[in-house]
């Protein structure tokens, strides 16, 4: 069982969550141009290692949370609420 | 005349029992209640806590906790949102009075019809729940006053431990999932034996 630390509920099994994609992409300015918006919507990194992701705790507090997960080992280093920043440094 | 939404969520279910007859059967009881969800408007959580304290003499609990005062209970749902539980008789009064008291501070939604409370008690209640729920519900980790929104039998539930001599867990589940959850619980309790009383027959 893979546990994800929800910042509100504590350690919870992964089947209470939905994966909601890359948490590092930022919406470009309205006048940033078509290519910037294409990248924002479609272009994603596929990192091997630490990655900041959105997870939705749909069966618990129903919040979207940010989780720093290692895509290689599934280890989770940190999690934070939707408006909070994950710590700068990765272990 | 009772309000139509105070009917049992198990209209076809008579009081019944099943499973093996043993020394410690599981008692499953549906509890009628008034349930009101209050959600703080942006940045007004402190005002909400103060207003609830004034209106109901109830302290809103922190995440994962339950607070009780007199005949009312507040259950944490999610950041900024709580469920207020009161006796079934307050169904007509409480939502209206809260709407008035929290005008502009919080969204008030009557959930009496939307949720169902299933109480399960007995010496083996925790063993039965262990077959349905992944959380550690031992007293060490999940004491009286703790609550958790989690999956029980693949259904979203708010679960908390009730105060009392016998082990008793209370599950708040969406009304339309109640029948399914009862089937799951009775199947999980078959080896201990169980009895079920719907709200109609339940002792107050």
From TrEMBL, chain A:
<dbReference type="Pfam" id="PF04267">
    <property type="entry name" value="SoxD"/>
</dbReference>
<dbReference type="InterPro" id="IPR006279">
    <property type="entry name" value="SoxD"/>
</dbReference>
<protein>
    <submittedName>
        <fullName>Sarcosine oxidase subunit delta</fullName>
    </submittedName>
</protein>
<dbReference type="InterPro" id="IPR038561">
    <property type="entry name" value="SoxD_sf"/>
</dbReference>
